[in-house]
Amino acid sequence: MVKKKKFSKITLSTSSKDRRVISIARQIIEILSSLEVEISHDKSLLSLNKSKNSKLLSTEEIVTSSDLLIAIGGDGTMLNCSRIYGSNDVPLLGINLGKLGFLSDIAPNDVTTSLLEVINGKYLTDKRFFLEASIKGDKESFIALNEIVIHSGSIAQMIEFEIFINDSFVYRQKADGLIISSPTGSTAYSLSGGGPIVHPELCAFVLTPMLPQSLTTSPLVVSDHSEVKIILKNQKATLSFDSHNSLLLSGKSEIKINKAESQLNLIHPKGHDFFEACRTKLGWSSH
After folding, report:
1. Which terminal residue of the chain, N or C, has fewer Cβ atoms less than 10 Å from its own Cβ?
2. Is 29 helix (H, G, I), strand (E, B) or coil?
3. Domain boundaries, the chain
4. How many CB atoms lie within 10 A of CB 140?
């Protein structure tokens, strides 16, 4: 992790319904207005249009002109902003209004102090990779920062699939589904399914079966240079990306998952530590 330049064009965004969002956004605008920073917001914060110190920009304008995006909300907001802006090389800084906040790590009470430090160049950068999925016969591809999930879409209903890594057959499995996560997503859905916590600096995928019909199936960690191929038998299933976009699959389907070319540049205040986040957010050493 290394220092980077000072930021001069900053955009605010959210997808949170938390009532604190607007007041925090106004607090940020007040802080930035005295620092010769150009401030903007996207359509998620239309109520800021009355502010003379912030202007509304389109997604395209933000991608081409902003050198930092501040996401106000929880990790869901960070995931949303990462797909829209982060995948287009706009660095992200998160104000955490959620419960865990592994991605958005500035608490509301620390906004003024932490933001001033970041604006003055006192911060850490943290690069994270995206997962990319494609479906055989479909030209479109889809990205996710945390995880790509294949599941039955129904309660207590299994799907059957085969897994290949770099065209080498791994196993055939019946399960409620399969979670393919990045290290970033290892503390999210994959963790609740029994997957390992993977340090974000590691270059790996984690494959975690969901309620497998087997007593010996364990999560599998493979290199992020791998191509993961999942072949579904003739059945219906759902493919989701960070619990956001969902696709319905039917018949025999073949899904390929790779590391995407784009990266997310996360910005952290100085002193950020992954293991401290695990201790505080996952209750390590709580006894």
Report:
1. C
2. helix
3. 9-122+270-282, 131-261
4. 8
Identify the DSSP state of 197. P
* Nearest Cα to Cα of residue 258 among 216, 226, 287, 211: 226
The greatest distance separating any two alpha carbons of the chain, rounded to the nearest whole angstrom, comes to 62
Neighbouring C-alpha atoms within 13 Å toward the C-beta of 161: 31
Measured from the Cβ of residue 51, the count of other Cβ atoms closer than 10 Å reads: 17
Rounded to whole angstroms, the Cα distance separating 135 from 260 reads: 15
This prediction has a pTM of 0.92
Tokens found for residue 64: 């081409």
Distance CA 83, CA 71 (A): 12
The token duo for 220 is 């599998």
Say which CATH topology domain 9-122+270-282 has.
Answer: Rossmann fold (3.40.50)
Asked if the 131-261 domain carries CATH number 3.40.50.620, the reply is no
- Counting Cβ atoms within 10 Å, is residue 58 exposed (0-12), middle (13-18) or buried (19+)? exposed
Q: How far is CA 276 from the centre of its chain?
A: 19
Residue 212 identity: P
- Catalytic residue numbers read 75
Taking CA atoms, 104 is separated from 18, 71, 77, 137, in Å, by 15, 8, 9, 37
Q: Give which of 134, 130, 132, 155 is closest to 249, Cα–Cα.
A: 134
Q: Is the pLDDT confidence value at 286 over 70?
A: no
The pLDDT of residue 1: 44
Neighbours of 235 (CB within 10 A): 16
For residue 217, the model assigns a pLDDT of 86
Report how far residue 220's alpha carbon sits from residue 209's, in angstroms, rounded to the nearest whole number.
9
- pLDDT tens for 63-81 read 999 999 999 999 999 999 9
Quickly count: other Cβ atoms within 10 Å of residue 186's Cβ: 27
- Quote the pLDDT of residue 271: 86
